[in-house]
Amino acid sequence: MVFFTVLDQVLITLTMPREIKEIKDFLLKARRKDAKSVKIKKNADNVKFKVRCSRFLYTLVITDKEKAEKLKQSLPPGLQVKEVKRSERM
Length: 90
Description:
By secondary structure, the chain is α/β, with parallel strands linked by helices. Helix content is about 30%, strand content about 30%. It has a 5-stranded mixed beta sheet with strand order 1-4-3-2-5. This is Large ribosomal subunit protein eL38.
């Protein structure tokens, strides 16, 4: 049986990535000053956008390929964008 202390639970929630449901929220996170890079992973049925900020990794999952392409075009120009192939690890 595994027991977690309150401190363990706080550390686990602080280190977990955050999932974003709205495209607008993702773009706001990507435009922040502490946003370092965006990784785009294309799968067979969805496209995942992952923006690395100073504290959290924010993830947005889009199932529509056309919306994903529009989002890719609307990312800030100064942000480093890396496309990750399916076989690579993130």
